[in-house]
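Long-time lurker, first post. I've been practising inverse folding by hand and with some scripts of my own, and I keep getting stuck on stretches where the structure tokens seem ambiguous. Below is the full token string for one chain I'm working on. Before anyone asks, I'm not after the true native sequence, just a reasonable design that respects the backbone. If someone could post their per-position residues I'd love to compare against what I wrote down in my notebook.
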């Protein structure tokens, strides 16, 4: 637990010192992990251990196939059209590089050993790997690029802003409808027609 807290403190310091507006342009020949860290986390300097821990979403000190897919953004709405075969190719490639014992999981030690051998995450042409929630993705990919802390609500007029806040409104309305249904002792719509009394 202590190593995780120290890591998170380091990430916060790195994030605080890496301004998003003055980020260095990325070269053409950088590896996917470096591009991912720059574009998705605004971190330009990292080590393989911190990359692994940042993407160990359940804190188990192992990466599963699900965590590999999530790191590559394959669970994100933007990847809905990626064929299942491509998703499997991504997982297979990463496991072949970093899972020498073939158990279908990558331990932190296996990751570090693979990195030391020169293994790197391949760029499959799927983008930077969106794996945050909607708020994080909107913040990092739109708000930080086009707005700042002085932006007023009435200035949020880009199509991305409108779609983002429309989704918030729809979620709030759905929650209100569900709350109203939860207060009802009997929800007539849930009773199959054959069991209803017809007047």
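-- Answer (accepted) --
I ran through it position by position. Result:
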């Amino acid at each position: 637990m202590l190593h995780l807290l120290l890591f998170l403190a380091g990430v916060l310091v790195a994030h605080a010192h890496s301004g998003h507006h003055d980020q260095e342009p990325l070269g053409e020949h950088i590896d996917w992990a470096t591009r991912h860290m720059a574009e998705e986390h605004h971190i330009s300097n990292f080590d393989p251990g911190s990359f692994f821990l940042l993407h160990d979403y359940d804190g188990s000190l192992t990466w599963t196939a699900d965590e590999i897919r999530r790191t590559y953004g394959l669970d994100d709405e933007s990847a809905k059209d990626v064929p299942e075969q491509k998703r499997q190719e991504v997982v297979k490639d990463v496991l072949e590089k970093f899972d020498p014992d073939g158990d279908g999981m990558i331990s932190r030690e296996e990751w570090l050993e693979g990195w030391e051998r020169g293994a790197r995450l391949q760029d499959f042409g799927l983008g930077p790997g969106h794996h945050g929630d909607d708020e994080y993705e909107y913040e990092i990919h739109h708000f930080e690029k086009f707005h700042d802390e002085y932006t007023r609500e009435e200035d949020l007029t880009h199509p991305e802003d409108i779609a983002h806040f429309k989704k918030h409104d729809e979620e709030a309305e759905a929650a209100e409808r569900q709350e109203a249904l939860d207060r009802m002792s009997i929800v007539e719509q849930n009773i199959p027609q054959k069991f209803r009394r017809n007047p």
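A couple of notes from the structure itself: The longest strand covers residues 62-63. The longest helix spans residues 159-183. Happy to go over any region you disagree with.
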